[in-house]
Amino acid sequence: xxxxxxxxxxxxxxxxxxxxxxxxxxxxxxxxxxxxxxxxxxxxxxxxxxxxxxxxxxxxxxxxxxxxxxxxxxxxxxxxxxxxxxxxxxxxxxxxxxxxxxxxxxxxxxxxxxxxxxxxxxxxxxxxxxxxxxxxxxxxxxxxxxxxxxxxxxxxxxxxxxxxxxxxxxxxxxxxxxxxxxxxxxxx
Amino acid sequence: xxxxxxxxxxxxxxxxxxxxxxxxxxxxxxxxxxxxxxxxxxxxxxxxxxxxxxxxxxxxxxxxxxxxxxxxxxxxxxxxxxxxxxxxxxxxxxxxxxxxxxxxxxxxxxxxxxxxxxxxxxxxxxxxxxxxxxxxxxxxxxxxxxxxxxxxxxxx
Lengths: 188, 156
What we know:
The structure holds 2 protein chains of 2 kinds. Helices cover 66% and strands 0% of the residues of chain A. Chain A is built from 8 helices and no strands. Chain A has helices at residues 9-17, 21-43, 46-62, 74-93, 120-131, 135-146, 151-158, 162-185. In chain A, helix 2 (21-43) packs across helix 4 (74-93) and helix 4 crosses helix 7. By secondary structure, chain B is α+β, with helices and mostly antiparallel strands. Chain B is 33% helix and 18% strand. Chain B has helices spanning 2-14, 19-56, and strands at residues 97-98, 110-118, 137-145, 148-155. Chain B has one domain. The interface between A and B is large, with 42 and 29 residues.
């Protein structure tokens, strides 16, 4: 049995810093999926997601000192770096809505439609609806609902207060439900 | 949120970074940590080359580009008796030489680090040291980019 599976992220990071390549690989395997999926949903393309993932883990190799355990977990540190790279790409593309745009979109509060999704077709519709959410809500839904981060971890990754995470998540879910409902009523 | 939980589980099963990325990152990790082990040997090799060059060329007497500022003298309540102090000799340095195997590339952090190396230590890396040079300390400035020494210059 691989003892590394029982090691914490912090222990693996410390070993990686000391030059242990296998510890780095173990940390990478454990954390690449969430980082890649977050980047994929936020950039909307696999090449961009791969580039963001690469930049994040290169920083793990080259600037491990930027991790501060007092400010959050290794997971939220990685998401925080991924978010910075996603923002950079968005600024370069100038196509996406800024993540911290203050404008809030109102949405009805009924999210019941999200409970009824079970079929493949409905799941695909939900995936597409998620991509069409404004980025600031999309990332809250991504981190809290899909990657199952705690509010505190998501707040550390997004660089905002826990209350902001809660409010964006609430609005994000409501907007998502509205989009799914609209697709059900008028399928393309 | 049953739908979101289902979608999350589906994404975790299906969407991961390409396998080739792990290999590229492993190589970067090896390079980062391997480089810090072999650089003294590379620097020593450059020392040998530059030593020969110094013997046959005059050294530029100008001040180095990066001067190390003396620290501010401590403030005391009493005034010490002043003695004439000879002016410090200006430092002579060579130009920078790339360390073998390194190239200039974009870096997030660049530092200039002054080191003192025993010429005898060259033997540890299988490099020849002449009897005349044995036991000498050599001072040098290393350009360290992202933790990896890239270039070196020698201080006379």
